[in-house]
Amino acid sequence: MAQRSKSSKAWLHEHVNDPYVHRAQKDGYRARAAYKLLEINEKDKLIRAGTVLADLGSAPGSWSQVASQLVGAQGKVFALDILPMQPIDGVDFIQGDFREQAVLEQLEQLLNGRKLDLVICDMAPNMAGNAVIDQTRSYYLCELALDFAAAHVKTGGALLVKVFQGAGFQAFQAAMREVFATVQTRKPDASRNRSSELYLLGRNKR
Question: Is the terminal CB of the chain with fewer CB neighbours within 10 Å at N or C?
Fold first, then answer.
């Protein structure tokens, strides 16, 4: 059996001892990431009863779980991912790549003429271990999410997207400001301190 690297042992130790991992198991969430969205929403009140939103890169589904609880019977959650995702009550899931026209058409059929109030995106690329490549891939996904939001979010709506600090951050922030009147950064407590991840929140779509 292959020996685990020091970094993977450290991750495993951190994961096993992570209070948010234990809370997620206890509360029935599929991943600790649920608490990042819950904390941001507590501060910014993005998702409320009646909100219609899309969750991009939704698998395994913890953000969709949170969103479906918050939007209630009057709201709607549409989730998209290339990977499969176990069903969640109140969530319409489309498995596919949202860059593809056929997948977008499926979403547009489900929307039935409605615009979205909000797009949430906790996507990250498969990490190659090369900082330059990983950062480039990450911001490519961010740009796709911004393009999607620009096309499908109503005037006055919002986008919450995960980014990584480093090359490309300021350029992407500037691109968001062209679409949204305000762009703020969020670093929830559930985001590990050593992680360079941040969330950018664009509000009041132009």
Answer: N
The active-site residue, picked from 36, 76, 162, 205, is: 162
11 annotated as a binding-site residue: no
> Cα torsion at 31, 37, 39, 45 (round to 10°)?
-150
- 76 included as an active-site residue: no
Predicted structure pTM score: 0.88
Question: How many Cα atoms occupy the beta-carbon half-sphere of 3 within 13 Å?
Answer: 3
- From residue 173, alpha-carbon distances to 50, 112, 125, 181, 185 in Å are 29, 31, 19, 12, 9
Q: Which residue ranges form the domains of the chain, and what is each CATH number? A: 34-205 (3.40.50.150)
* Residue 122 among known ligand-binding residues: yes
Q: Residue 1: which pLDDT band, with cuts at 50, 70 and 90?
A: very low
Name residue 158's beta-bridge partners: 118
Write the pLDDT tens digit of every residue in 74-113: 999 999 999 999 999 999 999 998 888 899 899 889 988 8
